[in-house]
């Protein structure tokens, strides 16, 4: 049975002036809209009690399983405002499917795709005024669906009570002052996820385990970490929060999905768009030495990362634990990097024809 996310309006929403002030400078992940969607699952009754409620804290029992065993998963996607004022989602079906796959891996119940979509439509409609104007920029409403074990029980088993929720946060352009290549820290000491682990699921533990390396990266002046496989530490996997690519000749190469890499929606879209740019998309194992050697001898002309938050981020250099630095080409934004970035943004903001049927109108 499909859930009905009935709206219980916030009696004290932010004023139009307060909202405008936030939307003028939204940052990322610090401001939230006036409402949130919720639903509950129990072993006895399945999914029920869906609603759009005023945004506010959860009441959690201190024994709630999420706080102890981290049984929780999440998603991340955006709502984009087109020039005519309409509001659209980019491939939300892919996020819904990944949310179900993540839930299965973490022993959580699957939220049916129509309920995932229903919650997003209900919340975006309730808080449509929070979707920033496109205005030629890259502002959007970031949507964060998540699910966690809310049963008060200290035994290690799948929770018999689960809470689903969706919150929304206006987001400004990731590169507020123009797209600039970033430096990436390569760690072979710390791993994000191992074979048979949860790397392909979007769960908090993967991010928690990445933070120690992320701190090292920040200490080295780097924006993010490139993780290698946890077994041999020889193969390129992904960044802490983005998939990675390089251009070599006319090939656009990304690590194959091994089970420890998150299958990015942006990654999947680039695999499709590459061919349209005359590039051959290749998914395969990549040795770290191949990546760094190719950068050093110039056979790798561009390197970039991709994900919902920043779309495509050019990588200008890598630093490693031996104190070496590898500068990609001239350290500038590559031709294909810029072209793919523009293609994705043009589709998302309705400036290009949506030939692949990737966009879904919400309002
Ligand atoms: C670990 C990781 N890899 C890759 C991605 C990119 O995925 P997507 O393109 O679906 O945002 C993300 C971001 O969600 C991520 O957290």
From TrEMBL:
InterPro entries: Aminotrans_IV, Aminotransferase-like, B_amino_transII, BCAT-like_C, BCAT-like_N, BCAT_family
Enzyme class: transferase
GO function terms (MF aspect): branched-chain-amino-acid transaminase activity
EC code(s) of this entry: 2.6.1.42
CDD domains named in the record: BCAT_beta_family (cd01557)
Cofactor(s) listed: pyridoxal 5'-phosphate
Reactions catalysed: L-valine + 2-oxoglutarate = 3-methyl-2-oxobutanoate + L-glutamate; L-leucine + 2-oxoglutarate = 4-methyl-2-oxopentanoate + L-glutamate; L-isoleucine + 2-oxoglutarate = (S)-3-methyl-2-oxopentanoate + L-glutamate
Pathway where it operates: Amino-acid biosynthesis; L-leucine biosynthesis; L-leucine from 3-methyl-2-oxobutanoate: step 4/4; Amino-acid biosynthesis; L-isoleucine biosynthesis; L-isoleucine from 2-oxobutanoate: step 4/4; Amino-acid biosynthesis; L-valine biosynthesis; L-valine from pyruvate: step 4/4
Top-level lineage group: Bacteria
Keyword check for Nucleotidyltransferase: no
A Pfam family this chain is assigned to: Aminotran_4
Gene3D superfamilies xrefs: 3.30.470.10, D-amino Acid Aminotransferase, subunit A, domain 2
Alphabetically ordered keywords of this record: Amino-acid biosynthesis, Aminotransferase, Branched-chain amino acid biosynthesis, Pyridoxal phosphate, Transferase
Annotated PANTHER family: BRANCHED-CHAIN-AMINO-ACID AMINOTRANSFERASE, SUBGROUP IIII AMINOTRANSFERASE
The family this protein is said to belong to: Belongs to the class-IV pyridoxal-phosphate-dependent aminotransferase family.
Protein known as: branched-chain-amino-acid transaminase
């Amino acid at each position: 049975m499909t859930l009905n996310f009935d709206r219980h309006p916030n009696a004290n929403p932010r004023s139009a002036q307060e909202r405008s002030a936030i939307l003028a400078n939204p940052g990322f992940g610090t401001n939230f809209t006036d409402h949130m969607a919720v639903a509950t699952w129990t072993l006895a009754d399945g999914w029920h009690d869906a609603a759009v409620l005023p945004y506010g804290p959860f009441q959690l029992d201190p024994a709630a399983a999420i706080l102890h065993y981290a049984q929780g998963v999440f998603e991340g996607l955006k709502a984009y405002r087109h020039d005519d004022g309409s509001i659209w989602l980019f491939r939300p079906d892919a996020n819904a499917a990944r949310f179900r796959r993540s839930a299965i891996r973490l022993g959580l119940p699957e939220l049916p795709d129509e309920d995932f979509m229903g919650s997003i439509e209900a919340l975006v409609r309730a808080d449509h005024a929070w979707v920033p104007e496109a205005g030629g920029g890259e502002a959007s409403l970031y949507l964060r669906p998540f699910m966690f074990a809310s049963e008060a029980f200290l035994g290690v088993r799948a929770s018999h009570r689960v809470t689903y929720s969706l919150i929304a946060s206006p987001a400004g352009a990731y590169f507020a002052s123009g797209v600039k290549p970033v430096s990436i820290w390569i760690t072979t000491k710390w791993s994000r996820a191992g074979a048979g682990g949860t790397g392909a699921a979007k769960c908090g533990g993967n991010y928690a385990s990445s933070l120690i390396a992320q701190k090292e990266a920040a200490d080295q002046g780097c924006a993010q970490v490139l993780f290698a496989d946890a077994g041999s530490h020889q193969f390129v996997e992904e960044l802490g929060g983005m998939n990675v690519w390089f251009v070599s000749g006319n090939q656009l190469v990304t690590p194959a999905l091994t089970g420890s890499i998150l299958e990015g929606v942006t990654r999947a879209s680039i695999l499709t768009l590459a061919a349209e740019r005359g590039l051959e998309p290749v998914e395969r194992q990549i040795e770290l030495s191949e990546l760094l050697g190719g950068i050093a001898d110039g056979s790798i002309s561009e390197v970039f990362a991709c994900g919902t938050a920043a779309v495509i981020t050019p990588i200008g250099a890598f630093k490693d634990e031996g104190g070496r630095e590898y500068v990609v080409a001239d350290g500038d934004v590559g031709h294909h990097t810029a072209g793919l970035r523009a293609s994705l943004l043009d589709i998302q903001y309705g400036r290009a024809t949506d030939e692949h049927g990737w966009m879904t109108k919400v309002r």
